[in-house]
Write a structure and sequence with these properties.
0% helix; seven-stranded mixed beta barrel; two-stranded antiparallel ribbon
């Protein structure tokens, strides 16, 4: 049985870049696979290489990307793609609510935890959450935009695809 139809893209912009990583963070995955968000909210973007998605899973290995202000309301689901600028950073892994109601930590699955410094992020870069399968303006279905790979740490040169 299908439960989910198409949904709108959630857009925003980075408002603060974070530069650090941690190996013993102790975040906890919420039992919810999706979260409704409102325009104007600010949430923290955090990468992880953890694979487990069971509620209560401890998430230790993380890279902090920064904080993003959302420009429109919508629903962010586990598995949605996170794009910053024209770079696919990874897919939503889940949510940690240790700072809620101030903000959620939106956990993003990536091959390795990366920080805002690793990706050379800057304030005002556009942030986009979209379903992994989405329809473009011409109605054609796209899956994970062929040729795009999740972000890797910078080697000193631009790693934009």
């Amino acid at each position: 049985m299908r439960e989910n139809g198409e949904k709108r893209v959630v857009r925003g912009a980075l408002v603060k870049v974070l530069l650090h990583r941690r190996d013993e963070r102790g975040m906890t995955l919420e039992p919810h696979a999706s979260r409704c968000v409102r325009a104007g909210e600010v949430h923290e973007l955090v990468t992880t290489d953890h694979a487990e998605t069971a509620p209560g899973t401890r998430i230790d290995r993380v890279g902090f990307l920064g904080f993003a202000e959302l420009h429109n309301a919508g629903v962010i689901d586990r598995g949605d793609e996170l794009w910053i600028g024209d770079r696919l950073v990874g897919t939503v892994h889940g949510f940690d609510a240790c700072h809620f109601p101030n903000h959620y930590n939106i956990l993003v699955a990536a091959p390795v935890p990366v920080s805002g410094a690793d990706l050379e992020l800057a304030p005002e870069l556009p942030v986009t959450f979209r379903a992994a399968t989405w329809k473009g303006a011409r109605g054609g279905s796209r899956r994970n935009r062929p040729g795009r790979r999740p972000a890797q740490p910078s080697s000193g040169t631009s790693s934009l695809p």
